[in-house]
Specification:
This protein is an all-alpha fold. The chain is built from five helices and two strands, in the order αββαααα. The protein has one domain (12-134). Helix 1 (9-39) packs antiparallel against helix 5 (112-134). The longest helix is centred in the N-terminal third of the chain and has 31 residues, at 9-39. The termini are far apart.
């Protein structure tokens, strides 16, 4: 016999909080771009090998922030269902992904200013997404407010 249960209020609240985390991360990246490029005049250009340089626009910043935040949400949802230590494991994975993502600005940025600007952007997105998303986990070290 199959039984189904309706989503609880907690599920809706958790989904809304995670969606806001994703949106907040994209907004943080966009704000960083708006400060760095138009206000400070940083040329966010990257180059892979001998390819033509590519300028990082606000669309790319928002798109990549959304994509990777959604992947983080997916990983947290899977971990929530499979382990009682989902929050700790997810934070560890998110921090590892952040460290790995910092390699791109260090390797591909065409100027020091672009490298610093891209690193600041990565850190801004992570500073919003990681703690906000971790707070939504059903598992962890204690009750959530």
């Amino acid at each position: 016999m199959l039984t189904t249960s309706a989503p609880t209020i907690q599920d809706h609240k958790q989904g809304r909080s995670r969606a806001l985390s994703v949106a907040g991360g994209a907004l943080a990246g966009a704000v960083a771009w708006m400060i760095e490029v138009p206000l400070l005049g940083v040329d966010l250009t990257i180059r892979f090998g001998s390819a033509h340089p590519q300028t990082i626009g606000i669309g790319e910043v928002i798109g990549v922030s959304l994509a990777f935040s959604l992947l983080g949400w997916l990983l947290l949802a899977v971990l929530d269902k499979r382990t009682p230590r989902a929050s700790a494991l997810w934070v560890s994975a998110a921090l590892a992904a952040l460290v790995a993502s910092l390699a791109l600005p260090l390797i591909a940025a065409t100027t020091t200013a672009a490298s610093v600007g891209l690193i600041v952007m990565h850190l801004a997105v992570a500073a919003v997404v990681i703690p906000a998303m971790a707070r939504t986990s059903r598992t962890g070290s204690g009750p959530r407010p």
